């Protein structure tokens, strides 16, 4: 990994995210590599949508647009994972995965890791800020979106 | 219990389970038989239980992408005439009741006369569910989860259960009670993989976390084996060896955008039964209070909490009071639950062992037999899309 002062949250070796063969999610993954968070929004009925789909689930328009939004949200749920289910995670110890809702984007939700102490107390409803993690040296290259407390962010 | 209105579209009372069969149950990877042979053994055991010539089977129904192909089974068994071959969409155990419903629907619609419903699993041959390896790149739903270490089933479901606990104040003890009840029942079931291995609260609490809020004992086992049942139309129900168990109702599916990825289902803190439970009760013409015994699929105990609440046995806010061991064990509990030991302690046959236990309860032949045994419920894999459920009843319910 390069282009970031921080090591990856999880070790290399986990499956690498790529767009589907039909390209549906390509703008999302390309956006992350440019520090941009893109989600779908329907220009006809203003419905937000994530994960992506070929049409708006509300009005069935096929003209759904990718819209850049601020990577901030609040913790909707969380888990602390202890049991490794992949060779790359053996001996890694516990890690945190959070489900973050984005109230300013139709309350869509996305999963990421919560940076900081994996044993920290996690409170549902806490505001969090997005942090891009770049794997520019990976083949294929990709980027992830993690989350951190506002307060932690201020200290950094 | 209500009579059937004329022209009503229903399965109620029109199909009977007349045979049940299982192989021995093994820890994962320990079956010396390959998966296809296990399927054949379970089907023949179900035919033998019914007193049925296996060549009379004319339909096959399964779920969760079962690998034992219906055409190959029919050829191997010498099936004289193959009629219906149905596979329920969706992975995991969400289809364990839907597979029964699909078979029953085939019979009611006149597409088939004698259908076997089955599940076969040899994880030694095909790899375990709890481990993920050998995958280079991922797309679609998995791309939004796996790079963040959300790979295996416990990781995929723990956040859903955590949110439910948060919304309704459910405590860890409610989940513990479900695990204790399953292990309690397994101790009088010699078929159970966990027979002779009792569980108590200390052992539960001391067990390692898999993914909080799931301890080791909140998670199903992984096993090898196969299980099968034989369905025939009601008019033939009396032609076989055992007391028939009639289908009172079944439902399959999920609510509005339940399958929205990743974790974007509007009803996220849910086991996916908000639309299915009312549909099941409506078809069966009964209420929760009429149910004598419940087999509820436990991929994880937290899913059982949600599933039972969504079927109206208690309100979510009452989960801590209702889910105590005394209420959940046969024969005396208010709602005897997973009376064979289920996925946690009997055998993880993707919930098909739960269907078989429900039939045993209706027959009066369970090793943990409940006293009132006219109505038995099965709830399929929770938290997935589609899910499914099933009500079986004795002849007295018709
Ligand atoms: Zn729209």
What's the layout of helices and strands?
The complex is a heterodimer of chains A (about 160) and B (about 400).
Chain A: E1 16-17, H1 26-33, E2 37-41, E3 48-49, E4 65-69, E5 72-81, E6 95-102, E7 108-113, E8 127-135, E9 142-149, H2 150-155
Antiparallel strand pairs in A: 2-3, 2-4, 5-6, 5-8, 6-7, 8-9
Chain B: E1 15-22, E2 26-27, H1 35-50, E3 59-63, H2 70-77, E4 84-88, H3 98-108, E5 115-121, H4 123-126, E6 137-138, H5 153-168, H6 172-186, H7 201-206, E7 209-212, E8 214-215, E9 223-233, E10 245-253, H8 276-284, E11 293-296, H9 301-310, H10 319-322, H11 325-328, H12 342-345, H13 352-363, E12 375-379, E13 387-393
Parallel strand pairs in B: 3-4, 3-5, 11-12
Antiparallel strand pairs in B: 1-9, 1-10, 2-9, 5-9, 7-8, 10-13, 12-13
Helix pairs in contact in B: 6-9
The complex binds zinc ion.
InterPro entries (chain A): ChsH2_C, ChsH2_Znr, NA-bd_OB-fold, Thioester_dehydratase-like
Organism (chain A): Bradyrhizobium daqingense
Protein name (chain A): Putative OB-fold protein
Distance between the termini of chain A: 20 Å
The CATH topology of the largest domain in chain A is OB fold (Dihydrolipoamide Acetyltransferase, E2P)
| Number of domain units of chain A | 2
Structural class of chain A: mainly beta
Pfam family, one (chain A): zf-ChsH2
InterPro entries (chain A): ChsH2_C, ChsH2_Znr, NA-bd_OB-fold, Thioester_dehydratase-like
Protein name (chain A): Putative OB-fold protein
InterPro entries (chain B): Thiolase (IPR002155), Thiolase-like (IPR016039), Thiolase_C_2 (IPR055140)
């Amino acid at each position: 990994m390069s282009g970031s002062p921080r090591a990856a949250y999880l070790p290399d070796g986990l499956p690498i995210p790529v767009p589907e063969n039909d390209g549906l999610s390509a703008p999302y993954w390309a956006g992350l590599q440019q520090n941009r968070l893109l989600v779908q929004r329907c220009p006809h009925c203003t419905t937000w949508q994530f994960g992506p789909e070929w049409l708006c689930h509300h009005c069935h328009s096929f003209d759904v647009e990718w819209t850049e939004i601020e990577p901030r949200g609040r913790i909707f749920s969380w888990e602390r994972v202890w049991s490794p289910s992949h060779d790359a995670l053996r001996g890694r110890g516990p890690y945190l995965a959070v489900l973050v809702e984005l109230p300013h984007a139709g309350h869509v939700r996305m999963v990421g890791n919560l940076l900081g102490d994996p044993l920290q107390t996690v409170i549902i409803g806490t505001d969090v800020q997005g942090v891009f993690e770049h794997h520019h040296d990976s083949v294929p290259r990709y980027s992830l979106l993690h989350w951190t407390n506002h307060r932690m962010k201020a200290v950094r | 219990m209500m009579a059937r209105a004329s022209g009503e579209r229903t399965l109620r009372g029109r199909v009977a389970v007349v045979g049940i069969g299982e192989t021995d149950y093994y820890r994962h990877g320990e079956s010396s038989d390959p998966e296809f042979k296990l399927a054949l053994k379970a089907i023949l055991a179900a035919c033998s239980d019914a007193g049925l010539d296996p060549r009379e089977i004319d339909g096959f129904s399964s779920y969760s992408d079962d690998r034992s192909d219906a055409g190959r089974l029919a050829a191997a068994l010498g099936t004289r005439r193959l009629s219906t071959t149905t596979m329920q969409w969706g992975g995991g155990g969400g289809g364990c009741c839907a597979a029964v419903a699909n078979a029953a629907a085939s019979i009611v619609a006149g597409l088939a006369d004698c259908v076997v419903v089955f599940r076969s699993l040899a994880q030694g041959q095909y790899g375990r569910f709890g481990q993920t390896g050998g995958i280079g790149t991922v797309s679609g739903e998995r791309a939004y989860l796996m790079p963040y270490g959300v790979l295996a089933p416990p990781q995929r479901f723990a956040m859903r259960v955590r949110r439910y606990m948060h919304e309704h104040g459910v405590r860890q003890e409610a989940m513990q009670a479900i695990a204790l009840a399953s292990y309690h029942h397994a101790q009088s079931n010699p078929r159970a993989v966990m027979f002779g291995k009792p569980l108590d609260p200390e052992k539960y609490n001391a067990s390692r976390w898999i993914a909080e809020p799931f301890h080791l004992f909140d998670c199903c086992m992984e096993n090898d084996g196969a299980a099968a049942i034989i369905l025939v139309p009601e008019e033939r129900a009396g032609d076989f060896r055992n007391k028939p168990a009639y289908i009172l109702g079944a439902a399959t599916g999920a609510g509005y955008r339940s399958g929205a990825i990743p974790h974007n289902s509007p009803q996220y803190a849910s086991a996916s039964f908000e639309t299915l439970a009312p549909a099941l009760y409506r078809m069966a013409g009964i209420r929760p209070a009429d149910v004598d015994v419940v087999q509820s699929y436990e991929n994880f105990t937290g899913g059982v909490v949600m599933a039972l609440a969504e079927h109206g046995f208690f309100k979510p806010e009452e989960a801590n009071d209702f889910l105590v061991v005394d209420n959940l064990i046969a024969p005396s509990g208010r709602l005897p639950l997973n009376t064979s030991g289920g996925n946690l302690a009997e055998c993880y046959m993707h919930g098909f062992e739960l269907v078989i236990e429900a039939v045993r309860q209706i027959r009066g032949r369970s090793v943990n037999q409940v006293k009132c045994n006219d109505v038995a419920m099965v709830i399929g894999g929770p938290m997935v899309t589609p899910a499914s459920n099933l009500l079986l009843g004795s002849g007295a319910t018709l």
